Structures are given as C-alpha cells and as structure tokens.
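Good morning C.,

I know you're traveling, so I'll keep this short. The sequence:
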Amino acid sequence: MEAHLLEWLNLVIRWVHVIVGIAWIGASFYFVWLENNLDRQVKNQDLAGELWAIHGGGIYHLQKYKLAPATMPKHLHWFKWEAYSSWISGVLLLSVVYYLNAATYLILPGSPVSPAAGVAIGLGSLIIGWYVYDFLCKSALRHQPLLLGVALMVSLVLVAWGFSQFMTGRAAYLHVGAVIGTMMVGNVFFIIMPAQRNLVGAIEAGTAPDPALPKNGLLRSRHNNYLTLPVIFIMVSSHFPSTYGHEWSWVILLGLSLVSVAVRHYFNTRHNSQQFLWALPAAVLALLVMAYVTVPQVPGSSAAKSSEEIAVVEPVTAQQAHDIVATHCASCHSATPSHAAFSTAPAGLMFDSIDEIKRYKDRIYLQSVASRIMPLGNSTGMTQDERDQLGRWIADGANTQ
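The tokens, ready to paste straight into the viewer:
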C-alpha cells in the first residue's frame, strides 16, 4: 500500500511540475521572442516598440514602454507564480523520488557518503548554487557576457562532476537541474520581481523609476531563457541511460548543455540576421559525436578485450541468464513485485519468463550491462561477472533453449 501511495504522490507532483513548468517556459520563450521582434520605429516617444500579431482568430496590438506609462493601469498581470510553482513542485518531486529512499535512488553503491549526508549536500547545493551564480553576475564579469557564460558553465560542470562522485547518474543529473532551476527562480524572486515592484511603486508615487533595475531584470530574464533548454533535457534525461549512465556522464551533460544553449542563441538572434545559422548543423554534428562515443561495447567483442584477455569461454545458457535476472531484476520487474518501493513493475517491464527476458534484452543490456545503473543502487549485489555473463548471452543471440 505504501508503494502504491508513493507512486500516486509521485504522479500528482510530477504532473503539477510539468504543467507549471510549461507555463513558465512558455512565458519565458514568448517574452524573449516579443522583445526581439518589436518594431522599434514607432512615433510615440514613450514607446520602445510595438508588435501586431494574430493568433487564435484574433488580432493583437502589443506595446512596450521605454520605462513605464504615466499612470498605471487598473489591472496589471504579474508573471511570477509560474516560476515559484515550478520550483516548489520540483523540490517536492526531488524529495519524493530521491530523498525518501536515498540509499537506493540517490547514493552510489559503495559510496562513503551516507544517505543523510547526500540529502544534505543535495539541498545545500541549491542554496550555495544561487549565491555563487548571483556573485558572478554582480562581479566584474557582468560586463563581459561571454566570460560570464564560460564561468557559469565551468561552475556547473564542476557541480556535475562533484555529484557524479557519490550520486547515481540520474540523481546527479537531476540535482544539476535543480541547481539551475534554483538559479532561475532566484532571478525571478530576488532580481526581476523587486525591479518590477520598484518600477510600479515609483509610478504610483509620482517619482522617477530607477532604469538600472528593469535593465538588470531583463538581463536575468535572458539568463533564464538560455538555461531553459538544458533544464528541459535534464527533466527527461532519466529515460536515457546512455547519457547519465556513461562513465563520463558529466561530460555528456556539458556537451548537451552547450548544444542547447547554441540552439537557443540561434533562435534568439535570427530576427536580426542568420549569422548563427551554423549553430544548427553544429548541434546535429555534436549530437552524432556524442551518440557515437556513448555506444556501449558488447562483451565478448574484440573491441572489448585486450589481446591478453581473448580466450575461449563457455556459452551462457538460457537457465543461467534467467537465474541472474530472477535474482537481481525480478524483485521489481515482475507481475507481482516483491520490492517495497513498487506495487507494479516499473515501465510495465516484467521478466518472469525467459521469453520476456529475451523480449526486453536490449533494455536489460543497456541498463544492467553497459551502464550498470541497474539494479537500483545495486541493492542485490550484482557482480561484474554476472553482468558479463548476461551480456554474452545477449550478444550470442539470447538463446531461450
């Protein structure tokens, strides 16, 4: 019953997180697009630009003021709760998935870091990450956008590498995403919203607004826009063990993040020219390179052996393969799971019979042999010899006789 309730709690929080995340990301993309596509040739000297648009059968006329109108409108919409709700639901989801069962989902098998310490480090990194990011943005690097971007990227790479030393691959990726998400919501809470309140307050009081605050708010909003695509990848990364399960997972994350930022930069600048069009084929090439370098080696192939290791080995029987899977996988992946964390088989994958094992052999190979991310936390103590045997059985055709 507890596993069933946790599954539904996971579902509800994840659903909310996706919904509010879409709202936040959509608003970010839209307003950056709007800013980039404003017609700056307007007669009204109070306006920075305007835009005519059609959508959903209606025609819209949008105007942006250079600073603010002379009087505030009665109704003014504030974009903030999308960000706050995304962060709150994200932290709750992180807690339900990784902190309630930290020994299995959070900490690498054999790591000297205890589950409690891992949780503390994970939560502490969110706070520290914001302060480091905010410090860099307020340092002399703020006048050098490219250097600031490099400094931020190096900092996040170090965070990813640090997490990978004691966290499981999925947990490390998700915590990097949580650090980035905290930076983004921190921008909204500490920078963008205060700037907007100052602007509105000055207008209502009849005083001159400080133009530096909205300018800084716009800069941080653009930071959020560039960070969005890496965060979206991290949100879906748990479905792709060839990334987080690779021994150089933090390098793969860096590569995918650079691709994301480059693609985002092209779409942010294409309204002026196509000078960054090269980013699209470069991104495709980078993805192909990463796909190539993460190709798993097949046990028993000449590429996986040194000249000293080549030797005749006995073929692995179907019964041996079944026994390995039954011992290390079937407690979760069964019609009747015995693992306390699952009331139903994860992803609907059941390995009760040798035919079912063969049916899902590619997934088993990727998860248990190539990336070695399964069993979860290696709670059953699956040995490397057992992984090699399973890999040879699959490489030899997964004979069921």
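Safe travels,
E.
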